[in-house]
Every structure is written in structure tokens, then in C-alpha cells.
Design goal:
mainly beta
Length: about 725
């Protein structure tokens, strides 16, 4: 026996230098001093470390009794499991030699560096269970000056199942700032290392003027490693009862998510109200992707009443697509459901199908880049009325349209002279339309469209003595365009924008039903300044000059007439975090047709963004009244843990606000609290103005899914 102890001592002395230690079958002990007491005892003292099967134990003194195969340990003790997810701290301990069984006194259990459980006594059982008596559990920072945490759970006994990663509380008492607020005889919670487990999630409170005060209590159900279901009952003081469902499933090549809800309330004549949203995306062979998004609701107001979405049109679609370096393919089916009271789904193109194939290629000896696009499109209305009904949209209620289009284009650039870039470009397109259930346009119509142009760019670059760089680039584009064939109603190109992105385009219509005609010159100038101090600005100024006005554009676009309105666009970027983007369309008399401005400030503690929009009335865009509105949202980080938020919008034409909201978010290392108050002012026959109050509280450290915030001051 003595020879075995001496051999062990020699082994320990040989291993007493710091080394990287991995999981092993035999224990390794490292210490400053080593003594043999009697025939069966080994005493290690001074910076003692024990490594065994991935576990690491540090202490000031360890006595090993070979007869009982037990360790008597004096602290401070730190026991870390493999991976470091579980740490045990104690003042004294008696453990088995493999560190899986035993008793620790004045102990703390730290899980995932978040949740701490302090106890008078802790027992390790089978290397799996940790039992604690007279426990205080919290993930809050505790300071000597104020040892009371912001929140804590006190329990008579706690058991941590390390294999299942569950924590069981017996006779639990929840306290806030030391004050008891709830008593729970039995409580089970996941430990911070567990991402998914069956159980209740944090409840949320919501109060609205329509529904009254309500509470939602979600229950999460795991259905294996790749599926889960969340059931969330929601009850309000005004008699509304709702059950929300969320189902998620992950596959090897994709995922799906379904959200749905069913409600019984007294807000409408319906016995039951509800909604269903489903989304999914899958990767298929040969770089194809399949995606779908399905949306449906029972009535126009449900989504707003229950805070699900503020969408006024639902868009359901399924699409097969592939994107490659020189090619694009898409085939999709889309179904629309309008939630606007003034719109009738029977007279809207509620079912749309599209197939698009686009290919880019080089043209060999001809040079440049060419393209080929094949496209089919159709949209159907459920109404069978071939005439326009009582609505003022001048569109036949039952009009169905199908289209087949083929387009080829080519572009090549040259450099000559003092840095002038000349580009030759052109395109040709043929369309075949089939129109049904329309007393005016019914039948088949063919149309061809060709356009060609020359573009000249001459960039001027100057470096100022201050180090700033100026780039001024005048651009002139001469376009010739022709169209053969008429009798096609314009449904997809009614909204036309005139901006810096399309000022030098062959066609500014966003869709296919309308094409820009006639000879014209697109003239513009861009000026960019970059300062060595880190700020920069850019200016674009231009207009379109036409040989003839074909009357294709409405007044709000600014593109009508033989001379269009002027377009001026400005961007400004400051290193302090300030950015501005503005765009205005105005005529020679400085009368504005459309203008928009967006300002943003993003700093460490303050974030503000605001936008303003103005547009004249334009019946071609189905807007009989001018648009004048502003929007803003802001967030101020008052402290490292407290953030205040605000948002709002105001319609100057109707002289009233449309949305106002404020909120406060508190987040530190142990709790996240979101408090919000908002007011929606919009109204219609199905939607009434309402005030919404929301509150959610998440205790970080119990699998809430929230990231820990800054520790901040002591609480």
C-alpha cells in the first residue's frame, strides 16, 4: 500500500507543471505540496487542482482516503463540469473520488454564467443531480452594498437535473426587491443551457379600448428535435376568448412556420373570428428554391383588433425560383385579399400567375452584353360583370387579362477622348394580350415596342487643397422609342416615380401594360463631394425633354409635357451618425409636384428617424386628394439598462394624427421589461380608433431566449 502511495506521489510531482488536460479515465492531481499520512491517506495542499473526465476541481487542500475512496476538500472550492456550463462553488466538501457524489456546504451553483443558486448545503448525486437546501436563485448582480437582488426565487429545496437540464423548485417564493409577491408550491423551469423544452412561456399583458385588459399565457410543446407547437390562450375583461397557435418544423432542406388564431367575441356579428398565416422555404436540387406565404383572415378588422398586423391587403403566394450569375427564373401564383372597406375583392385581380425567364450573355464579336427575357402573366377577377360597376375606378368589374412577352436588349460602352464614356443601348419587345369579360377591351391584342439610345458621360474629378474630392458627371441620353399596337388597359403601371434611379432609363413605367414613347433626351448632372473629415454629400439634378407629349403621365409624376419637371435629389452622410436623403420634383415656376425627405440620427445613446411626404392630387394614381404627412420614430438610451421609445405619424390633409406610440424598455443582466402605449386614430366602417397598452416581463436565466443586457449598477 505504501509503495502505491509513493508511486502516486511521484506521478503527481511529475505532472505538477501546467499542462492542457482533456477528459481521461484516471484522475490527475496537481498541487504545491504533497504528503502521505498513514497507509491510505494522501494530502495535497496549496493551489490544488484535480482533473477527471472533463471535470476540474480547484481547492486549497484535499485529503484523499484510499480506503473509503473519498475526498475531503477545504475551500474555496470551484468545481467545473465539462464544457464549463455548470460551475459549483463551496467552502467545504466531501466528494467521491470521481467527483460525482458527495456533500458541499455554503455552496453556489452557477449555470451558463447566468443563473446562480445559493444554498446552505448541496448534494451531488450520480453525477447527474444536484440537490440544494434553503435556496436563493437569481440571475441578478448582487453587490456587497446591497445584497438584495432585483428579483429572486427562494425555495425550501431545489433539484437540478443536469442530463435533462431542468430545475425543480419545492415551496418556491418569488420576490421582487426582497418583497414576496407570489408563492408556488411546485415549480419546474429549464436551466439557461436549454434552448427548447415543454412548458409555460412568459405571459404578456395587453389592454385595448376595444377588448379591455387581457392576458396571454403561451404554452410551448416540443415535438422532437425538429418540431414544436405553441398554444397561447388569451382572455380579456370584455368577454373575448382567443386561442393562438404557432407550429414550426425544420427539415433537412428548409423550414415551415404556421401561425393561426381563433376568437370568440362580441365585436362583430360573427360567432368566430380568426386568421391563419403560413410561411415556408425549401432548397431544391440544381439551385432551385421553393417558397410559400399563405395569409387569410375572417374579416377586415381582426388583424388590427388583436395587434397581429397592420396590413390592409393580404398577399398569399407560392414561388419556384432560381438565381444564377447570368440567369434568373421564377414561377409564382399570387392571391390577394383586400382588407380595405372601399375595395371589393370580387372586382380586384385576386389571382395572379407569373412565369419569368431572364438570361444575360455576351455577344462575341459584336461586344457588349445582351439579354433575353420571356414572361407570361395573367390576373383574374371573380366577378363576371363585363362593365364597370358603381365604383369609380373605370375598370370593368370582371376584366381578366393574360399576357405573353418576349424582350431582347443590348448594351455596349466605349471610352474615347478626354475620358468620355459613350454607351449604345437598345431593346425590343413583343406582347400578346388576351382580355376577357370586358365590354371595351375584350379580345386579343398584339403590341411591339422598340427603343434605342446613345448615352454620353463625362466625369470630372478634382482634389481640393483641403483634401476633399469632387466628382462632377454630366450625362446626356438621347432616346428614340416607338410602339405599334394599342387597345391595352393600363393596370400595372399607374404609379410612376421620377427619381435618381430611373432618370437615365429607357422606360420609366414599373410594369408592362404601358411603355414610354417618343423621341426624348434625358439630361442630368451628378456632383459628389467626399471630405477627409469623413462626411460626404451627393447631388443629382435632371429633367426629360420630349419631342412630343403623348399624355402618358399624370401630374404627380412630374414627367408630363414636352419638358418634364426638374428632379433634384440630395444625400448627406455625416460621421456623427447624421444622414439625410431628400428628393423633390418641381416645375420652372418652383411649384412642387412631389417631394420627400428623410432625416436620421444614429448615435450611441440616441436614434431618431423622420420622414415627410408631399404629393399633389392625381386621379391616374387613384388619389383625388393631395398627400401631406410626416412620420417619426425615436429611441433614447437613458442609461445602460433603460431605453425610451416613441413613434408617430400625422396627416396634414385630414388634420389629424394617424398613429402615436411611446414605450419603455428596461433590460439588465437578469430581467427584460417592455412597456408600450399606442393609439391608432384611423377609422372606417370596420375599424375603429383604439388605444393599446402592452406589458411583457422576461426573467433572463430561465430559457427566456433573451440575451443578457448590461450589468449596470447594483440593485
Amino acid at each position: 500500500m505504501l509503495r502505491r502511495l509513493l508511486l502516486s506521489a511521484a506521478t503527481v510531482m511529475a505532472l505538477s507543471q501546467p499542462v492542457a488536460v482533456s477528459a481521461q479515465e484516471q484522475a490527475t492531481l496537481v498541487s504545491d505540496r504533497l504528503e502521505i499520512a498513514g497507509d491510505t491517506r494522501l494530502v495535497a495542499a496549496g493551489h490544488v487542482e484535480v482533473f477527471y473526465k472533463g471535470r476540474r476541481l480547484t481547492a486549497s487542500r484535499i485529503l484523499y482516503d484510499q480506503a473509503t475512496d473519498r475526498l475531503t476538500i477545504e475551500g474555496p472550492i470551484v468545481l467545473t463540469d465539462e464544457g464549463g456550463g455548470t460551475v459549483v462553488l463551496a467552502s467545504q466538501a466531501e466528494l467521491s473520488a470521481d467527483l460525482t457524489e458527495g456533500l458541499l456546504t455554503s455552496a453556489r451553483l452557477v449555470l451558463n454564467e447566468q443563473l446562480q443558486l445559493a444554498a446552505n448545503r448541496m448534494m451531488r448525486v450520480e453525477g447527474r443531480y444536484t440537490a440544494l437546501d434553503d435556496v436563493v436563485a437569481s440571475s441578478c448582480k448582487i453587490c456587497a452594498a446591497n445584497p438584495t437582488p432585483l428579483w429572486e426565487i427562494r425555495a425550501r429545496r431545489v433539484i437540478h437535473d443536469q442530463e435533462e437540464r431542468q430545475i425543480y423548485f419545492d415551496h418556491a417564493q418569488f420576490r421582487v426587491a426582497g418583497v414576496p409577491v407570489a408563492y408556488i408550491p411546485r415549480l419546474r423551469m429549464p436551466d439557461p443551457t436549454l434552448d427548447r423544452t415543454t412548458g409555460f412561456l412568459a405571459p404578456s399583458l395587453r389592454t385595448t379600448t376595444l377588448l379591455g385588459a387581457g392576458i396571454k399565457i403561451p404554452y410551448f410543446i416540443t415535438l422532437g428535435d425538429s418540431r414544436d407547437l405553441t398554444v397561447a390562450p388569451y382572455f380579456t375583461t370584455k368577454g373575448s376568448s382567443t386561442v393562438d397557435l404557432r407550429y414550426r418544423q425544420a427539415f433537412r432542406t428548409g423550414e415551415i412556420e404556421i401561425n393561426a388564431g381563433i376568437t370568440r367575441d362580441g365585436l362583430t356579428d360573427r360567432t368566430y373570428r380568426g386568421y391563419a398565416f403560413a410561411d415556408g422555404e425549401f432548397a431544391l436540387p440544381d439551385d432551385f428554391r421553393l417558397s410559400f406565404a399563405l395569409q387569410a383572415t375572417t374579416d377586415n378588422a381582426y388583424l388590427l383588433d388583436y395587434g397581429i398586423s397592420d396590413a390592409d391587403r393580404l398577399d398569399s403566394r407560392i414561388e419556384l425560383s432560381r438565381v444564377r450569375r447570368n440567369g434568373f427564373f421564377s414561377a409564382r401564383i399570387i392571391s390577394f385579399q383586400s382588407l380595405r372597406d372601399e375595395e371589393d375583392n370580387d372586382t380586384l385581380p385576386s389571382l395572379v400567375t407569373d412565369v419569368t425567364f431572364h438570361r444575360r450573355f455576351s455577344l462575341g464579336p459584336l461586344g457588349g452584353e445582351g439579354g433575353l427575357r420571356l414572361q407570361t402573366h395573367s390576373h383574374l377577377r371573380t366577378s363576371e360583370n363585363p362593365f364597370d360597376g358603381p365604383d369609380p375606378d373605370t375598370i370593368a368589374d370582371g376584366r381578366d387579362v393574360s399576357r405573353l412577352s418576349v424582350r431582347v436588349d443590348w448594351r455596349r460602352s466605349f471610352l474615347f477622348g478626354p475620358g468620355i464614356e459613350a454607351t449604345v443601348l437598345g431593346e425590343a419587345q413583343a406582347d400578346l394580350y388576351s382580355i376577357g369579360q370586358d365590354a371595351v377591351y375584350e379580345g386579343e391584342v398584339t403590341r411591339t415596342h422598340t427603343a434605342a439610345g446613345v448615352e454620353l458621360r463625362w466625369p470630372w474629378v478634382k482634389a481640393a487643397p483641403s483634401g476633399a474630392t469632387h466628382v462632377i458627371e454630366p450625362v446626356v441620353q438621347l432616346i428614340w422609342a416607338d410602339r405599334q399596337g394599342t387597345g391595352i388597359p393600363n393596370e400595372d403601371s399607374a404609379l410612376v416615380e421620377f427619381d435618381e434611379g430611373n432618370i437615365f432609363s429607357l422606360d420609366r413605367f414599373p410594369g408592362a401594360d404601358a411603355v414610354e414613347q417618343g423621341r426624348r433626351a434625358n439630361v442630368g448632372l451628378t456632383w459628389t463631394r467626399t471630405d477627409p473629415a469623413g462626411w460626404s454629400w451627393g447631388l443629382t439634378l435632371g429633367r426629360v425633354i420630349r419631342e412630343q407629349d403623348y399624355g402618358q403621365f399624370g401630374p404627380a409624376s412630374g414627367l408630363g409635357g414636352t419638358q418634364s419637371d426638374w428632379l433634384a435629389a440630395l444625400t448627406l452622410d455625416w460621421p456623427s451618425g447624421f444622414a439625410a436623403t431628400g428628393r423633390v420634383v418641381f416645375d420652372d415656376d418652383l411649384d412642387i409636384a412631389k417631394g420627400e425627405l428623410r432625416l436620421a440620427l444614429s448615435q450611441e445613446r440616441l436614434s431618431v428617424a423622420g420622414s415627410a411626404l408631399y404629393a399633389v392630387a392625381d386621379l391616374t394614381e387613384n388619389r383625388p386628394d393631395p398627400t401631406r404627412e410626416i412620420r417619426f420614430d425615436a429611441a433614447w438610451k437613458a442609461t445602460s439598462a433603460l431605453t425610451a421609445k416613441a413613434e408617430g405619424s400625422y396627416d396634414f390633409e385630414s388634420e389629424r394624427g394617424t398613429l402615436a406610440g411611446i414605450g419603455v424598455e428596461f433590460r439588465n443582466e437578469c430581467v427584460a421589461v417592455d412597456l408600450s402605449l399606442s393609439r391608432r386614430f384611423t377609422s372606417s366602417t370596420s375599424v375603429t380608433p383604439t388605444t393599446d397598452f402592452g406589458l411583457s416581463v422576461d426573467l433572463i436565466g430561465f430559457g427566456s431566449g433573451k440575451a443578457a443586457g448590461p450589468s449596470g449598477r447594483c440593485y
